[in-house]
Amino acid sequence: MWLSVALICAALLFLIFRYVFSSSGPNPFDTDTREPLKEMVHNRKEKNKVLKQGFLASKVPENLDAIIIGSGIGGLGLGVLLAKVGKKVLVLEQHDRAGGCCHTFKEKGFEFDVGIHYIGDLLDHKPFRCMLDQMTNGQLQWEPLDNPFDHVVLGPPENRRRYPIYSGRTRFPEELKKCFPGEEKAIDEYLKLVKKVGRGIWLLAMLKLCPVPLAKFLVWSGLAERLSFFFKMAPRSLTEVVNELTENKDLRAVFTYIFGTYGNMPKDASFSMHSLLVTHYLNGAWYPKGGATEIAYHMIPIIEKAGGAVLVRAPVNRILFNDAKEAIGVSVMKGQEEVKVLAPMVISNAGIFNTYQKLLPKELQAMPAIQKQLSMMKNGEGGLSVFLGLNGTKEELGLKADNYWIFSENNFDELVVNYMNTKREESARKVPLLFVASPSAKDPTWEQRSPGKSTLSLVSFANYKWFEEWKDEKVSNRGAAYKELKQAFIDSVLEVVLDVFPKITSDKIEFIDAGTPITNTHYIGAPKGEIYGADHGIARFSPELNATVRPQTPLKNLYLTGQDVFLCGFAGALAGALTCGSVILNRNLHLDAIALAKRMKFMKEKLKAE
Ligand SMILES: Cc1cc2nc3c(=O)[nH]c(=O)nc-3n(C[C@H](O)[C@H](O)[C@H](O)COP(=O)(O)OP(=O)(O)OC[C@H]3O[C@@H](n4cnc5c(N)ncnc54)[C@H](O)[C@@H]3O)c2cc1C
Ligand SMILES: *[C@@H]1O[C@H](CO)[C@@H](O)[C@H](O)[C@H]1NC(C)=O
Ligand SMILES: *[C@@H]1O[C@H](CO)[C@@H](O)[C@H](O)[C@H]1NC(C)=O
């Protein structure tokens, strides 16, 4: 009996090592490809030559190795990984510019970001930073936010309590303790749990990379939960864990405020997902110098250098299959015409719902394996964005390189339920949760690009159903009723902003507009206006789902990348690209990135010693 158990264990370990550490394909992080820093390009026309290359059949390179649907960080990131090992990749984007959530747009002279406000974990020589440096040939620079990087504001206008959130493994708890005397134990315990969960994330990547039978065994045997604290805590809700730590309602709120970065209210949020976000920002927060367009701008040339292309205004309307149910290419709508593009491999960055529900032929969509995956995931919450262009410098307007999370009460569960389930006119009158940040104040190049001006981005959630009736109307012309509803949301969030930022007055506002869930559908292809792709509630974190939803689809030569295969956020979507790249290149790119970081640190220390 013991012998057989030992044998099974040995076989299991062998399999784990073989599949997790196997490295038969070429390594995109083999050599250091950073180049000396070139002068930054701010000229919009010059940048558009890279970001806005319109689709034409004649621009499609011959003998493609792969087609990627969607140019978000999940698509472009994967494109770069493949290009770095010499693969010829075509990235197709439905919008008129590349970048997905990393794209920007300009209105009345103000440049606005869509989905990049702050990114964590970018300390020098950390694997994530090294990897991004390599993926942009050392040209993308990161500007740290101020410390405190976040401010949590709780309560109604007449009684707003402000809590600064600092980064730093010791500073974070120290500063919290100053705000909450007597709660030292709760704060230490919270951080201890959060860190322990963060360390268990390795198993998630492994479950997505090891062979399905092994993944299933780990799940079925309960080993996944035993081996990783991440999976142990994943079924527990944030509310449940935090309520055990403290009775202080404001502290509970401060422990949970960052749920806004993945979108599930604390009672639906997995403590594990939450912990990942807390640890993500524990060493600081950064913003791309020059704005979010810099990301795609420095990735596209790497794809082109290998013979590939990134083409926009290229909505893919279906994926093409042969009789053996193998993906062989895609069809792109060029006006009313379908243009077919063939390649031995198709990878979708368009999200699991678009890919399975819109791009597959009906009979493949009906396959039980596809239906099973769809049944395990659900659409995430819709997003509401308000963009303000202001007359004045950051000094004049009192804007800093930080973020504000403003809530009208400290009971977030109640607040979200009431807001999302109320009649739209009523919810519009009082938006009880609001993220406010000034992208212009975070970017050291802004003053040079737009002297005397500033921008403000406000983000909240919104129920897709509130706006659904207008979804088929033209984006810039949805009629008076839609405009009126939008205006009601704008007015109520503006009231909050003018109150919390006293230096901003209405006469400073030169431009203001809002994006609703149906705006997201149009510009970033989010089918239900999702802000963070598929829902990140507790169900998303079952080891079973993890082992099932992975870069490989049930259809040969069709893969998934981006936020739906791993997690949302810039880092999560990029981890999706890394996981997908690992499968395609048949080696563990997560480990390659870690090895690269070690090598680079070693080289730097050697240089210093010489
Ligand atoms: C308002 C907002 C604020 C955010 N703030 C932050 C933040 O501060 N920090 C952070 O880390 N994350 C933030 N995020 C989340 C982060 O931006 C996303 O999770 C991440 O960028 C998603 O990357 P992705 O590549 O998976 O998807 P996306 O960037 O959504 O890319 C998918 C692309 O596919 C395209 N597409 C879809 N269907 C088709 C088709 N049929 N044919 C061709 N193309 C198609 C879409 O147009 C889109 O460009 C924010 C998101 C939003 C919306
Ligand atoms: C911006 O403000 C300055 C003074 O602060 C004023 O002179 C200028 O006219 C304003 N510009 C606009 C477009 O409102
Ligand atoms: C699998 O679960 C982990 C944590 O349990 C989570 O991070 C990941 O997003 C899940 N996978 C998918 C496809 O959502």
Automatic annotation (TrEMBL):
<keyword id="KW-0521">NADP</keyword>
<keyword id="KW-0520">NAD</keyword>
<keyword id="KW-0274">FAD</keyword>
<keyword id="KW-0256">Endoplasmic reticulum</keyword>
<feature type="transmembrane region" description="Helical">
    <location>
        <begin position="66"/>
        <end position="83"/>
    </location>
</feature>
<dbReference type="Pfam" id="PF13450">
    <property type="entry name" value="NAD_binding_8"/>
</dbReference>
<dbReference type="InterPro" id="IPR052206">
    <property type="entry name" value="Retinol_saturase"/>
</dbReference>
<keyword id="KW-0472">Membrane</keyword>
<protein>
    <recommendedName>
        <fullName>All-trans-retinol 13,14-reductase</fullName>
        <ecNumber>1.3.99.23</ecNumber>
    </recommendedName>
</protein>
<keyword id="KW-0732">Signal</keyword>
<comment type="similarity">
    <text>Belongs to the carotenoid/retinoid oxidoreductase family. CrtISO subfamily.</text>
</comment>
<keyword id="KW-0443">Lipid metabolism</keyword>
<dbReference type="InterPro" id="IPR036188">
    <property type="entry name" value="FAD/NAD-bd_sf"/>
</dbReference>
<keyword id="KW-1133">Transmembrane helix</keyword>
<keyword id="KW-0285">Flavoprotein</keyword>
<keyword id="KW-0812">Transmembrane</keyword>
<keyword id="KW-0560">Oxidoreductase</keyword>
<dbReference type="GO" id="GO:0005789">
    <property type="term" value="C:endoplasmic reticulum membrane"/>
</dbReference>
<feature type="signal peptide">
    <location>
        <begin position="1"/>
        <end position="22"/>
    </location>
</feature>
<feature type="transmembrane region" description="Helical">
    <location>
        <begin position="201"/>
        <end position="223"/>
    </location>
</feature>
<dbReference type="GO" id="GO:0051786">
    <property type="term" value="F:all-trans-retinol 13,14-reductase activity"/>
</dbReference>
